[in-house]
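Final report, closing paragraph on structural work. Over the funding period we assembled a curated collection of sequence-structure pairs, and we close with a single example.
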Amino acid sequence: MTTSAKWPNLFIVGAVKSGTTSLYAYLRQHPDIFFPEVKEPHFFTKPAPSEAQKHLITFVGDEVSYLRLYDRAGDKRFRGDASPSYLWSARAAADIAAVAPQARIIVILRDPIERAYAQYLMDYSEGAIDRPFLEALDIDWHRPDKGWGVSQLYVELGLYTEQIRRYRALFGHERVLILLLEDLKKDAQAVLARIAHFLEVPAGPMASVDTGEAHNHYKEPKGPWARRLAGHPLSRFLGERIVPRRLGEYIWGHWMQKEAPKPLIDPRAAAFLQDIYTPEILALEAELGRPLAELRRSWMDAKSLVAARVPLVPPVPCEGNTGRGAGPVPGSNQLDVPS
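Its predicted structure, as stored:
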């Protein structure tokens, strides 16, 4: 890659389903910050999608097209990229550091059990997954081929500690800001003030940012037809290549989805994930030097955990993380499926 090019110098790197869309929407309202219309170019991850997921994964694959996204950035101080695959991808972190070693990195985290389930519900709504959550976890955890656009990485995307250590080692602690989705929900303006201080940009414009709209929150498909249509290769092609992006998002959000309560998670799936993530969050607390009760919002008590726990087997390593903990035996056919 060309180091002399004018690369982005602000990266919202993830985690997936943890508020990156909201941060993108908020920060691009600041006069000193530019984000392109393409929120998630995933350029530095260099995805190699499987045949089964080619129509589901979009990314900008070549340097010329990627840098062209920033043609309208002008002289704004920060040029941003909000691709949530970058937190997981070791390659992305290294390649960003190679071309933009002084970049600022923003990480936003969520209870990893809630994060995995939110990703699954998104996949289910969009027709990418047709299995119950526990079964989908089991299959994804044990498959030998893993990667962005190959597998769902439900567990791996929540193994935050190693991912954060990687960015802190490459960019320095002072250039990596760690945020929590719960803080963003409780007081978005306070979080934006922290970001302004981190970026050393005027805080005043942050106070006028519209934080009233919930971005990318859970909605339910209006019916099986919506899921089939959303997951169809032709629909994906039209949505990504023909229909203007904002119109496509409006059609999906208003014509094909409806407001609905989020389905309850299968407690067996929650127990499986809790067994993996309990030591992970302890390690993250040691790394960050602070308690992280916000990342245990969904944790079961000991009695419930024992009752729901499923047998465990060794994990499967993948590119972004070696993985920890273990995976479940296959689930039965009587698991929860979002309606």
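The first strand starts at residue 10 and ends at 14. The CA atoms of residues 90 and 320 lie 5 Å apart. We thank the funder for supporting this effort.
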